[in-house]
């Protein structure tokens, strides 16, 4: 490659500006807030720039497109709300999981609804959404069930065990559509005790102590 070609290539290669981690987090917070407020289709680089008081060109130099910026924002907010839960019993674990999921549902549910349609059309966006909000919670719930099987609380071949994650995370998304209400901690606790406990063969009266 000639020196002339090299100069031209450098001229057409976008240079990413230096943004501190703290400043990047400001952008990510603004992106997620705007998604919750208005949805993915209404999100614009201009809106993010206005919210964070920066030039639109800064965002394009750093991330290139709206999708890339949203993916980065999602990766910055990986949820680990359930990973610390280990009460010593499955009943206790599931009640605490319901409390934790319910506590975050006001933030997570609007975000998942805002991104669900766009994510089905973008494998990159779908992957980021799953990694940020879904996979960590699935892993934590699966770990609770595995510990319960090892303790002998439920049989390993319990047919309901594989559906616990889908039930808990699914009802979080479904209640706003069915009742126009967030699936808060109290609702999810009642759901766990009334729907999941019987399916697993757990006694709803079990305090988990």
Notes on the structure:
With 209 residues, the chain is mainly α. Helices cover 70% and strands 0% of the residues. The chain is built from nine helices and no strands. Helix 8 packs across helix 9. It is elongated, with a radius of gyration of 22 Å.
Fold topology:
Blueprint: H1 3-12, H2 21-38, H3 45-52, H4 56-63, H5 66-75, H6 90-121, H7 123-151, H8 164-179, H9 185-200
Core attributes:
70% helix; mainly alpha; 0% strand; 209 residues
Give the helix level as a range of percent: over 70%
- Gyration radius, in Å: 22 Å
Head-to-tail CA distance between termini: 72 Å
Strand segment tally: 0
Beta-strand share of residues: under 5%
Can you count the helices?
Answer: 9
Tertiary shape? elongated
Give a quick summary of the entry.
The chain has 209 residues and is mostly helical. The protein has helices spanning 3-12, 21-38, 45-52, 56-63, 66-75, 90-121, 123-151, 164-179, 185-200. It starts with a helix and ends in a 9-residue tail after the last helix.
């Amino acid at each position: 490659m000639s020196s002339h070609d090299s100069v031209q290539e450098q001229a057409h290669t976008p240079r990413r500006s230096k943004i501190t981690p703290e400043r990047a987090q400001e952008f990510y917070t603004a992106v997620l807030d705007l998604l919750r407020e208005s949805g993915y289709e209404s999100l614009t680089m201009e809106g993010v720039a206005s919210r964070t008081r920066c030039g639109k060109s800064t965002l394009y130099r750093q991330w290139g497109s709206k999708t890339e910026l949203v993916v980065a924002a999602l990766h910055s907010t990986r949820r680990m709300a359930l990973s610390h839960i280990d009460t010593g019993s499955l009943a206790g674990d599931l009640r605490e999981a319901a409390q934790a999921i319910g506590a975050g549902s006001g933030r997570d549910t609007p975000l998942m609804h805002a991104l669900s349609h766009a994510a089905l059309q973008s494998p990159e966006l779908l992957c980021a959404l799953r990694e940020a909000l879904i996979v960590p919670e699935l892993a934590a719930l699966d770990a609770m069930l595995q510990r319960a099987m090892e303790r002998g609380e439920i049989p390993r071949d319990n047919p309901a065990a594989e559906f616990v994650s889908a039930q808990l995370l699914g009802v979080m998304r479904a209640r706003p559509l069915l009742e126009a209400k967030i699936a808060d901690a109290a609702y999810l606790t009642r759901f766990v005790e009334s729907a999941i406990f019987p399916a697993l063969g757990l006694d709803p009266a079990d305090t988990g102590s």
